[in-house]
Write a structure and sequence with these properties.
- By secondary structure, the protein is mainly alpha-helical.
- Helix content is 76%, strand content 5%.
- It is built from 16 helices and three strands.
- Helix 12 packs antiparallel against helix 13.
- The radius of gyration is 31 Å and the shape is extended.
Length: 399
């Protein structure tokens, strides 16, 4: 039977809200009238409500929600009461998410099933861990580990975005400065050279040609770049083109290694949590594949899973694909041999995350002087192209 969240007025004119089960909206209004309540608004909850587009939780809110839910359940508070407590702490837009989940739990569904019915932001890994915690009766500890994982992912995203912001801003400012010089400053200076009855140096001629081309073809070039960007965005919606792009990114010298380390750390962390929570290895590999952003690496893991399903050990299956770092493969082999695979996966995740941080810091340390040298070379080229004709003119006047 559908569940409705109603907002109503009681006989004294006070506002009230609660959940109500009814066959239809008309039936819900009839039940409210029988209780002496005047319905102001009815909101359909559960799967049907979410199909119409409900509110969403941000990643930060999801981390906080998971941590608080783990704390409440660890204090032996019932699940329904814990959800109701958390519901009062959210804003009006995000509260609908917990109201829908709480309504599904009140109908007798498990927490994992209720989260799956809701959809985003509760991904496959999140729901699989919740289901494992419910089956084992250790939901609070699983939520604690899940909260740690989400916070770690958030830190990685923040570091990656921070690492990209500075180079992007520096490149944007550099491009704006160069374009401004070439389209506004250089044309006015080169106008003075037209009255000289002397041949201009080759450097100056190259600068004038580049400036004229940029002034004439600049708007067209910008339009072409925008069209190419829009076309690339449309193509990348198709898995085939996304796979080709991800394969190309992995082939790049430094960036490919960085992406491989990041996805390896994310895979190791998710597999460690899943295996230690009692999820079978094959199911853990299937869920872990969904956490990998690069389609090439994800496809390699899915093929490795098929080999494990056929009886091949995990480290041999990973070796055969050739997409995973040697450290990951060696630690997995040690974990399989000693029966401590979750612990080894946890260590791999820590090592790969430290390696990711080191490589990002190194890339930033090298990028800044490289950009400064590049900008210095461009400015030197423009200055020489402008000063050489002036120096020739002065020499002619002296003679």
């Amino acid at each position: 039977m559908p569940t409705y969240l109603y907002h109503a007025l009681d006989p004294q004119g006070r506002r009230c809200r609660d959940l109500l089960q009814a066959d239809s909206e008309r039936h819900a209004r009839q039940l409210l009238r029988e209780r002496g309540l005047f319905a102001r608004r009815l909101e359909l909850q559960g799967q049907a409500r979410q199909a119409k587009g409900g509110a969403r939780l941000s990643h930060a809110q999801l981390c906080e929600l998971t941590r608080q839910l783990a704390t409440l359940l660890g204090a032996a508070i019932p699940l329904a009461e814990a959800l109701a407590t958390l519901e009062r702490q959210l804003d009006s837009a995000s509260r609908r998410v917990l109201v829908a989940i709480g309504a599904a739990v009140a109908e007798g569904h498990g927490l994992a099933e209720s989260l799956r019915r809701h959809g985003a932001p509760f991904d496959t890994l999140y729901c699989a861990l919740i289901e494992a915690g419910e089956r084992s009766g250790r939901l609070a500890p699983v939520l604690e580990r899940l909260a740690d994982y989400l916070e770690q992912v958030q830190r990685q995203r923040h570091k990656a975005r921070t690492a990209l912001i500075y180079p992007a801003v520096l490149m944007l400012v550099s491009v704006i400065v160069v374009v401004g010089l070439m389209t506004f400053v250089v044309p006015r200076l080169t106008e003075q050279f037209e009255h000289m009855n002397r041949s201009l140096p080759s450097v100056t001629q190259v600068l004038i040609g580049l400036s004229d081309a940029l002034v004439l073809a600049g708007p067209w070039l910008l339009g072409v770049l925008l069209l190419l960007a829009m076309g690339a965005r449309l193509l990348l919606r198709k898995p085939r083109w996304r796979y080709r792009r991800d394969l190309l990114l992995l082939a790049l010298p430094r960036l490919g290694e960085l992406l491989r380390v990041l996805d390896s750390a994310r895979l190791s962390r998710s597999l460690a949590i899943l295996c230690s929570s009692g999820v079978p290895l094959l199911d853990a590999l299937q869920v872990g594949a969904a956490t990998i952003g690069n389609l090439s690496i994800r496809g390699a893991l899915e093929r490795a899973r098929e080999q494990v399903k056929g009886g091949v050990s995990l480290h041999r299956a990973l070796v055969s694909e050739g997409q995973f770092p040697p450290m990951l493969i060696n630690m997995v082999a040690s974990g399989e041999a000693s029966g401590t695979l979750p612990d080894m996966l946890e260590r791999i995740a820590d090592n790969q995350e430290r390696a990711f941080s080191r490589q990002v810091d190194m890339a930033l340390a090298l990028f800044e002087p490289a950009m400064i040298l590049l900008m210095g070379a461009i400015v030197l080229f423009i200055v020489l192209a402008v000063l050489l004709p002036i120096m020739q003119l002065n020499q002619g006047l002296t003679l």
